[in-house]
Amino acid sequence: MRLGFQNKKQKVILFVLGLEMLILLVLIGTLFIPEKSYVLSDRENSITLPYGHYFLNCEYSISSDTDYANYLYILNDSGNSDGIQNTVNFLHHEKNEWKTEFWITEPQLNINLVVIEQYKDGPSGFLNYASYEIECTNYITFIKILIMLPVIAGTFIVYLILSGRIIMTCRKAAYAMIISVVFLITCVPLVGDNLIKGDDTIIHLIRLEGLKAGYLSGQLPVKVEPVINGGYGYAFSTYYGSLFYNIPAIFRLMGFTMQNAYKLFVVLVNLATVIVSYYSFRVIFKRAELALVAAIMYSMSLLRLVDLYQRGAVGEFTALIFLPLIVAGLWKIYAVPVDDKNYSRLWIMPVIGYFGVIESHVLSTEIFGLFTVLACLMLFKKTFRKQTFFVLLKVVLISIVLNIGYLLPFIESYMLEDTYIRSGQSNSARLTFCLAFTDLFKFFTKFVEFEGWRNYMVPGLGPTVIPAIILFICTLRKGIKKHKKLIIVSAVITVITAILSLDIIRYERVLTYLGSEPSGVAVIDSIARSVSNMVKNIQFAMRFLTVGTCTYIVFVTALLDQYDDAGSDAAILRVSEIIIVMLTVIQFIWASKLTMNEMPYMNLYTMTENDKELSCQVGNYEYLPRKADGYFPEDFLREESHYDATDAVVTGYEKEYTNISFHAVTGDEKGEVELPLLYYRGYKAINADTGEKIRLTKSVHALLLIELDSNFDGDIRVYYAGKVYWHIAEVVSVISFILIVVYGMRRRDNGAEE
Questions:
Q1: What is the pLDDT of residue 12?
Q2: 13-19 long-range CB contacts below 8 Å, 24 or more apart?
Q3: How far is residue 45's CA from residue 16's CA, in Å, rounded to a whole number?
Q4: What CA–CA distance (Å, rounded) separates 554 from 93?
Q5: What are the two backbone dihedrals, phi and then psi, of residue 678, each rounded to the nearest 5 degrees?
Q6: How far are the Cα atoms of 185, 284, 472, 561, 582 from residue 288, in angstroms, in the given order?
């Protein structure tokens, strides 16, 4: 790009941009400067610290005479934790070292490190000694870097406007302002020091800490989160796409608390959803005004609100970023004439959409894929045109190649490992969260008790349904001039998803029947069981509305597109837009207020090895390997982990995350060592002295089992390595992504419209 100095303002902006880049480079450089550390002797327990993030190492000795627990507290001079963010620090009397982290949220604060016996006031009388080392981190520098990035982006946009590369009009500025306001409104429930406790929020906070620990253990990419399940590990990222959830994991590694890293991720998701939905609907309807209306409806839909703040459904609300891209991409494939010179290249947008969905949420992939097939069948005449069919085939094949780094480990592990979800026992033969008919279109003003759960607000299509029906009737009388097939397909899919979400469907009866070998023919019964298990794994009937919400918005926007900006149509268009937008915004704000008032809140800053109960809150244990008796190994996960040696002597045992090392000696008999890590594919055991592989299998307790030859004497190292062909698949995915980016940039440079 040539940067011409056309006027003085451009020179000033370029100077400012260069200065900002220099500041950013300086900040990055300071990351390599060692941070301070403070050592407090046995008689010192007080220190003044500025705002920031710190690690605390405590070496201590506690008498074994006490039957009560002793805890390390970080307190201010008033004897409370105001201005300090930390977790419970239990000091086990059989250990002599403890490491934790804490945050100072005041500009400067004097803290006191005090060991207190349970149920007592004042310092513990059983503490023999305690010395402390406090390590500073680069947390403040990372905050400055994160602030500089949007500042630099904003300055660059200003330069593009001044240089004429972006033509800014009053209307564009107004639209940008409206989009910004919509984005800010969607983030309001995140305001405050606390975090709304959604159904799965704790699960995903634990998962976030697991990703952080996975990187610290040396995994790249992370497939088994080490600190989950009391340190026994959990293969969340093998079964559950974590590509985008690595973003908050990076924030966590920078020093942010668990909940603040999560909040930052939700902010980015909201921003991406507003921008991507506006772009996608602009591609379909070519009218910025209608794209803005559609983006408001999508970004502020009840479905997103419930997923974001009531359910804490990270995978689903991340996948919703990409659904409009899929819709827009498929629309172009069917709407653009096949003799267009760029027709064969129309696979890019839907591939990006499916890439995002696959890497975010498996169940959303199943649902989106199912309705994609339905849409293609509804348009079968165009689907089976040679040119269209080959473009759709490209979408499928390129999506598989692009995601092979995730799909290969997932499919292999799912098909070959005996996990709880694979057994079909993890979910009952019914779908919950079924909606009443009125839930589809009513204005929600209060939470209601929902199927025995806590008070809830179910996500229907929203109060715009009635005005949309009236608009549809008026449009039919006026005559539909364009988008006929788009209106039909979007309406049919919306109705189907709405029906599937209702409580009139007897899922329990149907799924039980399908799982009971109804035909007596092995092949048919196997297919029936697979369908039954697949539907059971969807769990919530309202999930069908993830597709229905998007197609409903396409339907409404296509109706609005029948009316011109001028003449007699203008009044109907303006009134319809105002009613739809106002109802959407008012419902979202009202529902947000209800959510903030009714939902419980929590504070969760970090997680330690002592948080056994917390680390085991992983939902329905879908990805736990089953023991030999068919049950999942939940009984010992909350206990102190230890190895179990049979016919072998183990010394020098050390465990850090998913890495274990020890020295083993066997006699004339073969020996075994059962290690405190749940068995998942990808673990590797080697003789540290010779580099030879050591046989590693699954024990009857679903743990790692090292099998040793007789007369073995050597050091053993166990770690998670993944599989060679998994890593090859990951490289293929990365190369595919780079090639797609380069291909897209070349097309843009050649003036092709994508």
A1: 87
A2: 13/155, 13/158, 13/159, 13/162, 14/159, 16/155, 17/152, 17/155, 17/156, 17/159
A3: 46
A4: 63
A5: -65, 140
A6: 21, 10, 21, 11, 18
Query: What pLDDT is recorded for position 504?
Result: 87
The pLDDT assigned to 3 comes to 44
How far is it, in rounded angstroms, from Cα 632 to Cα 637? Answer: 11
CB 309 within 8 A of CB 356: no
Indicate the residue type of 486: L
Count of other CB atoms within 10 angstroms of residue 282: 18
List of E strands, 460-604: 601-602
Q: What is the pTM of this model?
A: 0.93
Per DSSP bridges, beta strands 195-196 and 46-62 are unpaired
Which one, of 233, 78, 363, lies nearest residue 657 by Cα? 233
CA distance 315 to 176: 28
Total H helices, total E strands in the chain: 24, 19
User: On the CB side of 675, how many CA atoms lie within 13 Å of its CA?
Assistant: 32
Residue 440 is classified by DSSP as G
CA-CA distance, 398 to 725, in Å (whole number)? 19
Looking at residue 753, its pLDDT comes to: 45
- Look over the chain and give the mean of its residue pLDDT values, rounded to a whole number: 90
List of residues 6+ apart from 539 with CB closer than 8 A = 363, 427, 431, 432, 433
**Residue 615 CB neighbour total at 10 angstroms:** 24
DSSP 636: T
Strand partners, 505: none
Say what the pLDDT of residue 257 is. Answer: 96
**Separation between Cα atoms, residue 294 and residue 281, nearest integer Å:** 7
Residue with the two structure tokens 């490289």:
731
Token pair for 24: 């950013």
Report CA-CA distances (Å) from 556 to 241, 337, 461, 533.
32, 24, 12, 34
Helix/strand/coil percentages in the chain, nearest 5: 50, 15, 35
The whole-angstrom distance between residue 419's C-alpha and the CA centroid of its chain comes to 22
Pairwise CA distance, residues 320 & 297, whole Å = 13
Token pair for 335: 């709407």
Q: What's residue 478's pLDDT?
A: 86
Give DSSP secondary structure letters for 90-118: EE-TT--EEEEEEEEEEEEEEEEEEEEET
* pLDDT tens digits along 696-713: 999 999 999 999 999 999
> What CA–CA distance (Å, rounded) separates 502 from 505?
6
Question: What are the DSSP calls for 42-78, one per residue?
Answer: TT--EEEEEEEEEEEEEEEEE-TT-SS-EEEEEE-TT
Amino acid, res. 665: V
Task: Output the six-digit token pair for 228.
Answer: 């989950």
Tokens of 495: 């109705």
Residue type, 101: E
Q: Is 6 exposed, middle or buried (0-12, 13-18, 19+ CB in 10 A)?
A: exposed
Q: Which residues pair with 412 in a beta bridge?
A: none
Phi and psi (nearest 5°) for 572?
-60, -45
In degrees to the nearest 10, what's the CA dihedral of 471, 477, 482, 486? Answer: 60
- Tokens for 400? 């598989």
The answer to whether 132 and 58 are in contact (CB under 8 A) is yes
135, containing H or E segment: strand 127-136
Helix, strand, or coil here: 461? coil
Residues 6+ apart with CB under 8 A from 629: 700
pLDDT at 2 (0 to 100)? 46
Residue 454: predicted pLDDT: 64
**CA–CA dist 529, 527 (Å, integer):** 5
The stretches in the chain having pLDDT less than 50 are: 1-5, 752-754
Q: CB 38: neighbour CB atoms within 10 A?
A: 14
Task: Give residue for tokens 């201010």.
Answer: 76
The predicted structure's pLDDT at residue 476:
92
For 80-89, letters b (16+ CB in 10 Å) and e give eeebbbbbeb
Residues 142, 255: Cα–Cα separation, whole Å: 8
Token pair for 422: 């694979």
